[in-house]
Design brief:
Helix content: 10-25%
Distance between the termini: 46 Å
Subcellular location: Plastid, Chloroplast thylakoid membrane
Subunit structure: Part of the photosystem II complex.
Family: Belongs to the Psb28 family.
Structural class: alpha+beta
Main location: plastid
Protein name: Photosystem II reaction center Psb28 protein
């Protein structure tokens, strides 16, 4: 009998530290379906609480049992001098990258109780 360990899908800004805040995610896709972008918005992310002990934000990492999807397109918004929001963008340039991203999002949404709402 073979036992397979399934990693819980996670998002990280500092490698090794899972982000606890569930993001708002917006998706865009080209008309021909060859490329797209996912924009993640984290309101009051937990990484702000731990970044002083754990180090700097090094990127945006989406981790599941297939591996890691990553981006360095990460920006923080400040309100009254305090960090309030992180926005991360993940660009998909091929249908294969889009499909891989969608598999991650399906796993992540199931693990965190998210649902898709088309606008």
């Amino acid at each position: 009998m073979q036992v397979v360990m399934m990693a819980k899908p996670a998002i990280q800004f500092i490698q090794g530290t899972d982000e606890q805040t569930i993001p708002d995610v917006r998706l865009t896709k080209s008309r021909d379906g060859t490329n797209g972008m996912a924009i993640f918005s984290f309101d009051q992310p937990s990484v702000f609480d731990s970044s002083t002990e754990l180090g700097d934000i090094t990127g945006f990492y989406m981790i599941d049992d297939e591996g890691v999807l990553q981006s360095v397109d990460v920006s923080a918004k400040f309100v009254n001098g305090k960090p309030a929001l992180i926005e991360a963008k993940y660009v998909m340039r091929t249908p294969r990258e889009w499909d891989r991203f969608m598999r991650f999002m399906e796993r992540y949404s199931q693990a965190n109780g998210l649902q898709f709402v088309k606008k």
